[in-house]
Each structure stands twice: as structure tokens, then as C-alpha cells.
TrEMBL record:
SMART domains with a match to the protein in the record: CXC (SM01114)
Record-linked InterPro entries: CRC, Lin-54_fam, Tesmin/TSO1-like_CXC
Keyword match Nucleus: yes
Ranges for region Disordered: 24-53, 104-125
Keyword annotations from UniProtKB, A to Z: Nucleus
Intracellular or extracellular location(s): Nucleus
N-terminal signal peptide: none
Source organism per UniProt: Salvelinus namaycush (Lake trout)
Organism phylogeny: Eukaryota, Metazoa, Chordata, Craniata, Vertebrata
Domain (CRC) ranges: 559-672
Protein name (database record): Protein lin-54 homolog
Length: 785
DNA sequence: GAGTTTGAAACT
DNA sequence: CAGTTTCAAACTC
């Protein structure tokens, strides 16, 4: 599988999210309701809403042809990848199940119920039939506007029961041409969604074309507006377009291009924003001004069942991104699509992607892939994991959080009760929202009902059912054990926490991003685990942690110091690895239990820590409202002897000032402290020196490398030889004879030693010059004294 | 590298 | 919640 290299990955612009997980739905329209029903969480499922999402006017559009004012890169991107882009506080869930008519499911993240409230600027020209089988009912059908838009105006809902009901709300719209739109609202409330149809003549014609143009690229445009009154405010310069060109392997379904046009939150953008082309998993960055509408284009070739590449770029924070391959799916997988919506708050973004192939007689859907993009604060490490895995993998990321509660893993094997497909009536399995609260990011993680979830059975990999290929040839399979005791503390989601407890076969292991990173660094990680924390004996874990120990790009992002724990078994917060939610790896610890081999003990330890302090795994250094300058220790330090000017002090170590929350004695870690300033100056000077040394080393290394590069072919080929290559043994001997001759001359003339040395050196210089001058000649140098 | 210091975490 | 102990990192020599 091709993956985006870390180098290219680093070039990913903020605004780009790319994934190939989007696959056109080729299911017949009649089957769509069923499919959407699968992805529809039950009414009992509380809505994982985080209402802190800022109400940023946003426009997301899928259109066939980018407006002239848009910087469209459609067509320039080869197939093989899909790119999505969202702006802050936008959560877009794309679900596409493959049908012959290439229907597309869009799930804008919103918590509100979709209604037919039409903005003033649009006029209802036609109604789109609504098929909501198995879905949350909509208050009204979509409205096709005059400008080829399907307006899905969502009603702002209270954070109460409405949100709960609206969670996962999915609307399926069938156009006259048989095209289906399935829109699920799982995100911000009060945000209408406009499905903008291509501007191809009459509206009906364009709608019809959507269903008919199977052999031609099809374009959809979906526009979401933050409020019902915002449609008229859509301005060209506010549009950000992401165009997704997609080809299906189904002959009847031609390439379909999606153009996501989205309003840009000017406040959250810098003067320059980046737009990337994703070319077969490779991302090339370009830049464009913010004010003009931005079009991000990517193409996806669904015909290839071997590799689906995902590239995602967050909108805002300079987040790092991991692009991993999506394992191909098995056509005959009997599982239907299920969406597992996740919500991100605070500028977080999320895209849930589902896909299936049309070749499967039954609806086959990849497990939900969740991509969370964005966030605030420090650079984030974004990870996208393959979906096709024997264990149902969910990924949750918390931008800005010390812990990236990354993965939900479902157990599909093991000795736990129940089997996939068997109904689960245990109420404990009912979907519940998990709100992750950190000082920087709040995240809601809804767990769809187990009955639904278990329909998302990962498809085996084409190559191996036990491994997943990730960015750097690591293979990862996540454990799926349950830990019921921890669920009450889901707001803290400790590393390794296992979600979705109960007797069901679906467990959700929440692991920190660091863990994922660690596993990514592993050359080979194979793990099979059964669910049931209560039955530890049932846990079958096989983990082969890194064989080579070599770090990858992930390690480069955040180097980790190995711990040296001896007595804590690395299962207490004394251990930095454990405290950071990491498994010990390449540490110097003894009797370490902070690994997969001791998953049970580790889970217990996590629970114990959370019992003592529910915020034990939260970042200690919170982010202030006005940026890093306001970072402060959540608890404050208690230093007594260090003056808070040594790394003993957690504040000083974090390079922040002590605050009123500190209980330190004799604190010198305040703004005006002369001692602190002195230390800072020294530290800065030391840092400068280090940087200079590093730069010098780098330069020297580069020069050496360059020299070798230039000289090696010369030596081997014989052409363009460097001067020193002429210093053969004979030349050296002749040179030495010349030097000796000078020495003898000086001795014969009874010259002083200094004069003799000078004569020798001068002769040596002449020899060198002759050697150098001879280098430019084809003949061998002739050195004569 | 060994020993000491330090303060957070854990414990009572 | 306060005092004590444990622990591992930071620091010193």
C-alpha cells in the first residue's frame, strides 16, 4: 500500500483532509434506507454533543464544478485519494456505500434535527423524496433551491433530549434521478446543510443527471451554513472548496467528484492558508490567500481494492498527520454500514468515512473510520488508522490534549459472551456518549448501540487478517477488552481504558495516541485480545512490540525519555510513560507492567489512578484563553527548596510561571524574577549554542555527503576527477622528493631552520598547485621539482 | 556512575 | 485534608 511519507505528510496544509475512505455508494436507492438504518443510532443513544463548538459560519459544498472564483484544483489530482476539508468546529461525516447509482452520504456533524427550513435566499423549486427508513425522522424533507441546492436547515436544539434524539440523525434523500443523499446530523446545532446540485441548466436536469451520469464525473455540492440566515451571506471569498474526484470500480458508476465548499472562519485563519493536492497518497502543498475561495481537490480511485490512502490535514493547528493505508475490504463481507459518530469540540474536526463496494452482494462496509482534525494549541499528531481490521477500530483524537484517546477497539473474537450478529439486550451496551474533557479540548464520543456496532465487523485484510499496514510498515492490531469499571470515568479516558463494557462482544479500548504512535513505531505488532476485563483469563493478548526499536516520524514529533522505574512496575504515575499514557518502550525500567503483556494489570492501575484522581491523566499544563502565555499548571507546584527554578518544579519544567495555584515556598519563578531571567538567558544561550552546533554538524555532514556524492561517480567513471584523486602513490612520492630536495637545498646553503621550513612549505604549495592544475587535464599530472 | 536532592504521587 | 512515605527524576560530585 502506498502511504504518504512523513516528509510529505509534514507538508500537509492545515485545511486539507484527505481520505480515500470515501467510496461511492453504488447500492440501489432502494437499499439505501437499510444502509442508512444501519448507521442510524438508536433513539436511546445519547447524543455525543459538545456544545462548546463555536458557531462558525461554515459552508461545505460538494459541487461538480467549482465556481470560477474558486481555486479549483479538480482534475489536477490523480485518482487514488480523497480529500476532505473542514474548518473549525466542523464535523463532517461522509458515508458512502457503494451502489450502482453512486449515492453519497454526507453527515455533517450537528446535533440538531434536520428540518426543511429554507433560507430566504433560496426558493423551493422541488421537493426531494425522502427515504428515512430506519433513520431518525426528519421534520421536513429537503428543499431543492433555485441555485441547485438542497437545503437542510437544522433546528437549533437544546442540549437536552433533542440532542439526544438527533444524534446520528440521518436523512436520505432520493433525487429524481435516483440519486440518494443521506445526511446525518451529528454535530453542531442550528446549522443547515445545503446540498448544492450542479449548475447544469435546469435544476431538475441536474438532479436527473446525478443519477444518470454514471459514466461521467458527477459533482455534488453540499453547503452547510451555520445558521438559517447565513445562506445569503455566502460570499465567494468565504468559500473553501474541497473537491473530491472519485472513481468507482463499478462500470456503471463513473467518477464522481465532490467539491466541498465551506465558509472560512476568518478569525481562525491566518493570512495564508495552504491547499494541498493529494496525488495518490502524496500531498503537495501550495498556498493561497485566505480571502479567495479555496478549492481542494483530490481524486479517489475506488477501483483499486488493494490500497486506499488517507491523508488528512487539519484546518488550524500545525498538526502533524499520519497517513496510513486503508486495507482493502472483502467484497462479501456481510456487514452493513454503521456510523459511529464522534464529535469534536473546540475547533476540532471530524470526518467519519464509510465505504463499501458494489461488488458485494450484501452491503459491505468498512468499519467506521474516524478522523479528527484540528484542535488548538500545540502541534498535534494526527493519526488515521486503517479500518479494515479484525477488530473494530475506532479512533478518537483529542487535539490539544495530552492524551489522544485514539482508538475504540471492538472485540470480534475471544471468549466473551455473544457473537457478532447476536442481539444484545444488555442495557449497558446501549450507546452512551462519552465526553472527554480536557483542559484544552472537549470531545464527545458516542458509542452506538452494540447491536448496531456489532454490525460493523471489520473486514479481514487482504493480506493478513491479523495485521494492519500503517504508515511506516508497522502493523497494528488493537486489543479489545472491556473495562466496565472505567466507563464511569470516561470523561477522563485514561490511556488503555476500555470502553463499552458488558458481556457483549464489543469492547472499546481507548488508547492514547502515544500508544498508537508507539505501535506505529513497532515493526511488527500483532495482538489478539478478547473482551472482558472481568474475565482476565479470557484475554488473549499477543503483542510483539517493536523489533527494531527504530523510531519513525511519530517519535520525531515527540521524543520520549525512557523511564527508569524499579519499584512501581511502571503502573503508577511515578512513571512518566504511564503518566503520559504510553507503554514503556525502550525504557530502562525493571519489572515493567506497562505493556500489552500486562494489559489487565495496567487497566487496573489506570482505574486506581482515576479513582484517586479523576483527572490524573489530564494534562497538567492547561492552556490559557489567550494562548500559551497563559499556560498554567492545573494544580500548581509545591516546591520548597528549589525556588521553582529547577526542573524539580513542574512549572519551571514546563517553562511556565508559577501561578496563584502554586503552593511553592520561596518561588523565584515569576515574571520579574532576576534569577529566572538569568536562567532563561543562560538557557537561551545554551539553546543557541546547541542549535549552532547542530547546524554546523548538519552543514558539515551535508558538505561531506555532497563531496562524496560528487566524487564517487568521478572515481568510478573516470570522468571529472577531483584533484585529490590525482594524489596517487607516485604523486605523493614525487611530492615528498620535492620537499626533501628543498630541505637538502636549505641544508646545503646552511639556511636557518625557519627558512628551510618555509622553503619546504612553499614547495609543498607548488606541488599542490600543480596537482590541482593537473586535475583539469586528462593526462596524469606530472610533478617536477 | 554513584550518591544526593527534590517534589509529586501514594499512602495513612 | 494533612502528614508521612514512596518513588523516580533531577541534580551534584
Amino acid at each position: 500500500m502506498d502511504v504518504v511519507s512523513p516528509e510529505l505528510n509534514s507538508l500537509l496544509p492545515d485545511e486539507i483532509m484527505d481520505t480515500e475512505a470515501i467510496i461511492m455508494d453504488d447500492d440501489p436507492p432502494s437499499e439505501s434506507p437499510a444502509a442508512s438504518g444501519q448507521s442510524q443510532p438508536s433513539d436511546d443513544s445519547p447524543v455525543p454533543m459538545d456544545t462548546d463548538v463555536p458557531a462558525v459560519p461554515e459552508i461545505v459544498s460538494l459541487c461538480s464544478d467549482a465556481p470560477p472564483t474558486q481555486l479549483t484544483q479538480a482534475g489536477t489530482t490523480p485518482t487514488g485519494s480523497t480529500l476532505c476539508s473542514t474548518t473549525s468546529a466542523t464535523q463532517l461525516l461522509l458515508t458512502s456505500s457503494t451502489v450502482s447509482s453512486s449515492s453519497l452520504t454526507l453527515r455533517p456533524a450537528t446535533a440538531s434535527t434536520l428540518t426543511s427550513t429554507t433560507p430566504k435566499t433560496t426558493s423551493s423549486l422541488s421537493r426531494v423524496s425522502l427515504t428515512s427508513g430506519g433513520l431518525q425522522k426528519l421534520s421536513a424533507p429537503f428543499t431543492l433551491s433555485a441555485n441547485h441546492q438542497i437545503i437542510l436547515n437544522k433546528v437549533a436544539s437544546s442540549p437536552g433530549a433533542d440532542i439526544t434524539r438527533s444524534q446520528g440523525t440521518t436523512t436520505t434523500t432520493t433525487t429524481p434521478g435516483g440519486q440518494q443523499f443521506m445526511v446525518t446530523a451529528i454535530g453542531k446545532s442550528g446549522q443547515p446543510i445545503v446540498l448544492q446540485l450542479p449548475h447544469t441548466g435546469s435544476k431538475s436536469a441536474s438532479v436527473q443527471g446525478l443519477g444518470e451520469a454514471k459514466a461521467n464525473p458527477q459533482h455534488f455540492k453540499v453547503v452547510t451554513v451555520s445558521s438559517a440566515s447565513q445562506v445569503s451571506t455566502l460570499q465567494a471569498q468565504q468559500l473553501k472548496t474541497v473537491q473530491i474526484a472519485q472513481k468507482t470500480q463499478v462500470s456503471s458508476a463513473g467518477p464522481i467528484k465532490f467539491v466541498f465548499t465551506k465558509a472560512v472562519n476568518n478569525k481562525g485563519l491566518t493570512a495564508q492558508t495552504s491547499v494541498s493536492n493529494v496525488i495518490t497518497g502524496r500531498v503537495l502543498s501550495t498556498s493561497s490567500p485566505v480571502t479567495p475561495p479555496r478549492t481542494i481537490t483530490l481524486s479517489e480511485t475506488l477501483g483499486s481494492s488493494s490500497s486506499n490512502k488517507i491523508a488528512i490535514s487539519p484546518l488550524k493547528s500545525p498538526s502533524k498527520l499520519t497517513v496510513v493505508s486503508v486495507a482493502s475490504q472483502v467484497p462479501n463481507s456481510p456487514h452493513k454500514s454503521v456510523s459511529l459518530p464522534l464529535n469534536m469540540a473546540h475547533l476540532g474536526h471530524q470526518i467519519l468515512l464509510q465505504q463499501s463496494t458494489s461488488t458485494s452482494p450484501a452491503k459491505t462496509m468498512k468499519p467506521v473510520q474516524t478522523v479528527t482534525v484540528g484542535g488548538v494549541g500545540a502541534p498535534q499528531f494526527k493519526t488515521i488508522f486503517p479500518l479494515s481490521t479484525p477488530s473494530n477500530v475506532q479512533q478518537i483524537q483529542v487535539p490539544g490534549s495530552r492524551f489522544h484517546y485514539v482508538r475504540l477497539v471492538t472485540a470480534t473474537t475471544g471468549s466473551s459472551t455473544g457473537h457478532a450478529g447476536s442481539p444484545i439486550t444488555n442495557s449497558s451496551m446501549t450507546a452512551k456518549p462519552m465526553v472527554v474533557n480536557t483542559t484544552q479540548v472537549r470531545m464527545s464520543v458516542p458509542i452506538v448501540p452494540a447491536q448496531t456496532m456489532k454490525q460493523v465487523v471489520p473486514k479481514p485484510l487482504t493480506s493478513s487478517g491479523q495485521v494492519l499496514t500503517t504508515q511506516t510498515q508497522q502493523r497494528l492490531i488493537m486489543p479489545a477488552t472491556s473495562l466496565p469499571q472505567i466507563q464511569p470515568n470516561l470523561t477522563n479516558l485514561p490511556p488503555g481504558t476500555v470502553l463499552a463494557p458488558g458481556s457483549g462482544n464489543m469492547g472499546y479500548a481507548v488508547l492514547p495516541a502515544q500508544y498508537v504512535t508507539q505501535l506505529q513505531q513497532s515493526a511488527y505488532v500483532t495482538l489478539a485480545s478478547s473482551s472482558g476485563f472481568s474475565t482476565p483469563t479470557g484475554i488473549q493478548t499477543q503483542a510483539r512490540l517493536p523489533l527494531n526499536g527504530l523510531s519513525t516520524s511519530g517519535a520525531a514529533f515527540r521524543p520520549r525519555k525512557p523511564c527508569n522505574c524499579t519499584k512501581s512496575q511502571c503502573l503508577k504515575l511515578y512513571c512518566d510513560c504511564f503518566a503520559n499514557g504510553e507503554f514503556c518502550q525502550s525504557c530502562n525500567c525493571t519489572n515493567c507492567f506497562n505493556n500489552l503483556e500486562h494489559e489487565t494489570d495496567r487497566a487496573k492501575a489506570i482505574k486506581a489512578c482515576l479513582d484517586r484522581n479523576p483527572e490524573a491523566f489530564k494534562p497538567k499544563i492547561g492552556k490559557g484563553k489567550e494562548g500559551e502565555s497563559d499556560r498554567r499548571h492545573s494544580k500548581g507546584c509545591n516546591c520548597k527548596r528549589s525556588g521553582c527554578l529547577k526542573n524539580y518544579c513542574e512549572c519551571y519544567e514546563a517553562k511556565i510561571m508559577c501561578s496563584s495555584t502554586c503552593k511553592c515556598v520561596g518561588c523565584k519563578n515569576f515574571e520579574e524574577s532576576p534569577e529566572r531571567k538569568t536562567l532563561m538567558h543562560l538557557a537561551d544561550a545554551a539553546e543557541v549554542r546547541v542549535q549552532q552546533q547542530t547546524a554546523a554538524k548538519t552543514k558539515l555532514s551535508s558538505q561531506i555527503s555532497d563531496l562524496l556524492t560528487r566524487t564517487t561517480p568521478a572515481i568510478t567513471s573516470g570522468g571529472g576527477r577531483m584533484p585529490y584523486t590525482f594524489v596517487t602513490k607516485e604523486v605523493a612520492e614525487v611530492t615528498c622528493e620535492c620537499l626533501l630536495e628543498q630541505a637538502e637545498q636549505a641544508e646545503l646553503n646552511q639556511q636557518p631552520q625557519a627558512t628551510a621550513e618555509r622553503m619546504i612549505l612553499e614547495e609543498f604549495g607548488r606541488c599542490l598547485m600543480r596537482i590541482i592544475s593537473s586535475a583539469g587535464k586528462t593526462d596524469c599530472p606530472s610533478i617536477n621539482c
